[in-house]
Amino acid sequence: MKVVIYKLSGKLIKDSDALNKTLRAIQMRSERGQHYPVIVHGGGPYVDTWCDAWGYQVEKYQGLRVSPDVQIPVITGALAGYVHMRVIGVAKDVKIAAIGMTPTTGESLVCELHPDSDKLGSVGVVRPGNTRLLISLLQQGYWPIFHSMCHTINGQCLNVNADDIAAALCVALQAEEMVFFSDVPGVLDTHQQTIPHIALSELEQLQLTGHVHSGMLVKIKSLINLNWESLQRVLITNGHQTEKTTIGASDFEGTSITELSEGAS
Ligand SMILES: Nc1ncnc2c1ncn2[C@@H]1O[C@H](COP(=O)(O)OP(=O)(O)O)[C@@H](O)[C@H]1O
Ligand SMILES: CC(=O)N[C@@H](CCC(=O)OP(=O)(O)O)C(=O)O
């Protein structure tokens, strides 16, 4: 089963036009490439706004949101409520057979408290679980669309970074490819130029340079820890320019990350 994981950034979701075009591009691409698409969405900017309105200070630790238990109702309301309904709504408009999913439904993923929970509060880490439900949905032609709020096996509600959900689903479903639609054209070098290709062995060094930080650091870390057995490529591309980079081009432009160096076999 050929699966591709698509991660939609929260900044992209704020831009209705770009979201609509990106979902259409995924639709065309999955028909052309005959693969099953699985979508994961973020929603960070919405959480920032909602927390601000409640008088909660927005704080990050190594790119992850510090999520005190008292803020979980607001964070859940934003990510698994409003943002999720919005993405499903646009998918419906584009005539996609979308199924809204919590990552831990059917134990698709298993979630536990983050090892740094003393600093992060109610933040979780995930690992692959049981894919039976997901595979059945894909085989029936549904598009699973995941938000990133999870339950532990004891029912505690935890905030998980959407990039980590995408990476865990990639391993669980043995996906061939993962595409991150971000707000930047790819991983940028010290001159703000997009790095066209990075080999897995170069990521470790990249995360130590200090040049890659905040949200991009979360992505890079999730890729280092990934099992690359089935994965052929990870692409980081600008979701706000989906139309520009697909029309007339064979694929999205951006940073392509592969297990081996370019040209190696
Ligand atoms: N070297 C880098 N190249 C590109 N983006 C970077 C880099 N270092 C830090 N970033 C930041 O990472 C952000 C993308 O990560 P994030 O905000 O989590 O996006 P997303 O919404 O796609 O999850 C960019 O907007 C940029 O501010
Ligand atoms: C723990 C943690 O960092 N959770 C993220 C989940 C949403 C997310 O990842 O959204 P983006 O993809 O838009 O960044 C957060 O609360 O912002």
From TrEMBL:
Q: Where is the Aspartate/glutamate/uridylate kinase domain?
A: 2-238
- Residues annotated as coiled-coil are none
Per the record, its GO cellular-component terms are: cytoplasm
Q: What GO MF terms are annotated?
A: acetylglutamate kinase activity; ATP binding
Q: In which pathway does it act?
A: Amino-acid biosynthesis; L-arginine biosynthesis; N(2)-acetyl-L-ornithine from L-glutamate: step 2/4
Q: What is the catalytic activity of this protein?
A: N-acetyl-L-glutamate + ATP = N-acetyl-L-glutamyl 5-phosphate + ADP
Q: Does the keyword Amino-acid biosynthesis apply?
A: yes
| Keyword Disulfide bond in annotation | no
What name is this protein filed under?
A: Acetylglutamate kinase
EC number(s) recorded for this UniProt protein: 2.7.2.8
The organism of origin for this protein? Pleionea litopenaei
Q: Which UniProt keywords apply?
A: Amino-acid biosynthesis, Arginine biosynthesis, ATP-binding, Kinase, Nucleotide-binding, Transferase
Give a GO biological-process term: L-arginine biosynthetic process
Q: Give the gene that encodes this protein.
A: argB
